[in-house]
Amino acid sequence: MSIPTPHIAAKTGEFARTVLMPGDPLRAKFVAENFLEDAVLVNSVRGINGYTGKYKGKTVSVMASGMGMPSIGIYSYELFNFYDVDNIIRIGTAGSLNQDLKVRDVAFAMGACTNSNYVSQFELPGTYAPIASYDLLKKAVDVTEEMGIHYKVGNFLSSDTFYDDSKGTMKWSKMGILCVEMEAAALYMNAARAGKNALAICTISDSLVTGEETTAEERQNSFQNMMKIALEIA
């Protein structure tokens, strides 16, 4: 496959070594406009906005992943394998499965369980456990503690289904799963296969325990703590 790819129009060298990856293209736009200096739009194919700019003198990129493992699977694969990106930091939202993880808290995915069949493509003779880059995770925790932000580190569930007909998502909580989202496991698998680094940082947008939730506008434009953490470690 050549550059540009079927899904990304950027040219060689237009992405930084570290890419922040929210699900929502408008959240990518928000990060670029509010945190990056001299941000340039390097991709807009299918409305998946990608920007490169400066944060405290460092070149950083931010590009949306879309929703779900198939979508982030495509974009992270192309960034890792064709644009020479070394680090992808997901900055997304998740639903809490833990009574101590409240709306607007920050959570880090040390690992990512999944109900997806994404791993089958690698033809492994067993069960694979997708995990974060330890270096990125440690840096993120250190920065978060310096900032005095409430956080939890643990295992996520990356689900293929948002509307779960079996109503079984809460069952994962008995195994200590912190929260449910839809992308981290595929990102971690792609990073492992490419020999690159990945970390998922999520803000809790709703709680399956208490029923509390945030609005679409809040998810798009707020949740700035996770953005600042990701930018500091980029």
TrEMBL record:
Membrane-spanning parts: none
Keyword Cell inner membrane attributed: no
Domain of life: Bacteria
Site (Important for catalytic activity): residue numbering on this chain: 219
BP term (GO), one: uridine catabolic process
Keyword tags: Glycosyltransferase, Transferase
Chain residues that bind phosphate: 23, 27, 46, 90-93
Molecular function in Gene Ontology: purine-nucleoside phosphorylase activity; uridine phosphorylase activity
Domain spans labelled Nucleoside phosphorylase: 19-229
Active site: 206 (proton donor)
Enzyme class: transferase
Quaternary structure annotation from Swiss-Prot or TrEMBL: Homohexamer; trimer of homodimers.
Function of the molecule: Catalyzes the reversible phosphorolytic breakdown of the N-glycosidic bond in the beta-(deoxy)ribonucleoside molecules, with the formation of the corresponding free purine bases and pentose-1-phosphate.
PANTHER family noted in UniProt: FI09636P-RELATED, URIDINE PHOSPHORYLASE
Name of the protein described by the UniProt record: Purine nucleoside phosphorylase DeoD-type
Gene behind this protein: deoD
